[in-house]
Amino acid sequence: MRRCGFLVLLCGWWLLAISQVEAQAERSGPPAEVGESRLYTVDALRADFTQFRRLVETEAVNPYRFTDREPFDRAFDEGYRSIDRPMTLREFYTRLLPLKAMIGCGHCHLDYPQEYRKGVQTRRFPLIPVVVEERFFVKKSLSPTPRIPPFAEILSINGIRIDRILSALRADISADGHNPHFRDAALESCFQYYHANRYGTPSDYTIGFRTEGGDGAREIILPALACDTVPYSTRESSGLGCEILADRGAAVMRVGSFIYYGDKNRVFFSFLDRGFQRIRREKIDPLIIDLRGNGGGDPFCAARLLSYLERTPVAYFSQPYGRYAELARPVPRAAQPFTGKVYVLIDGAVFSTTAHLCALLHHHDLAVFVGEETGGTYTCNAAVRGFSLEHTRLHVKLSTATFAAAVSGFPPARGILPDHAVHQTVRDLRRGRDTVLDYTLMLIAGERSR
Predict the structure, then answer these.
(1) Mean pLDDT on 124-147
(2) Same domain, yes or no: 333 and 443
(3) What's the average model confidence in pLDDT over 220-225?
(4) What angle do CA 189, 194, 200 make, to 5 degrees?
(5) Residue from 216, 214, 207 nearest 146 by CA
(6) Looking at residue 3, what is its pLDDT?
């Protein structure tokens, strides 16, 4: 079974961006005193709120693309007026989260200062979840002694119904064009992070759950885990791989990330060259490219994959963007490109550069897409800059430029749509079945039998 989570947001670009923001915050002044119960004055909070609003209005590229100026201004005005008493850092943070999400940019981010995360957010939720059919299941327990079976359904956490938790956290997550598929992918891979940000970090969790065929709802108390034992993203990356399914006469190329910048380009290029050489040598057709969970990375890597699939050279970007300017010109075809049929597996974690590539493959009719709508669109905002609010030292990360693939006819608020929409069911989840891959292999078998 494969169920992929969050994106580049889930991968190295986000972690790198956070570290860059923290570095800037450290240069901006001495650390503020931190503590879960520390109260900030109304004047300090309003000053930071005003600074946050000014940053959004002057530094973020096109902040009103997905939310009109009038409702944005109204939300900011109401938020400012709601600061009528001293607040803790978490209370203030949760005031800003929905405003940050209104921008509709998946590269936009808001985080606690480093000293708060290290000194206060010291514990984490002990389960990895998966969202299926609007229900919340345990994918895996992180506790050394698991006490809830895999794929039990979670009904509540610390007395709060799971539907209320999901609604609140979805509203907190920034997504390109408010894409719900990206939000759920982010929730799955970084649930511990998002839950701690909004609800704090108690020493234990009272979890309401039920099991398949059980006698009804039950409750159990699970101890929280030390923060340093839980990774920021719990998504298991598929990495890079190429598998020949001899009995199916097909190949599966798994590309879990394009995060191979600079000198690491050659690692990715070598993987592609070897993979396509093997496919050509063994005369395999069709090819399944599994991009699920791929949150993006270096456009040069995605363009290299495009060079093997395009029928004639096509441009990657619609305009010359900085160091990627050459990608606004047609990308030369690989010396020995793949000329057979291509199927691409996608999900809500497909984002940024990977969504650009999917838009190009779709626009030029180079592949059949199977799975779920991507979390990214043909265009996204990036070129991220980090800022620190003066009093609370909250970290603000905003995109300052837009990057668009060289395509037309795609709505900016939607991801790339599959030709065959396939969703994992609860039954498939419990059986450990890779629903999307199985469906694709069935499509291939059906076409061969005609």
Answers:
(1) 89
(2) yes
(3) 94
(4) 140
(5) 207
(6) 37
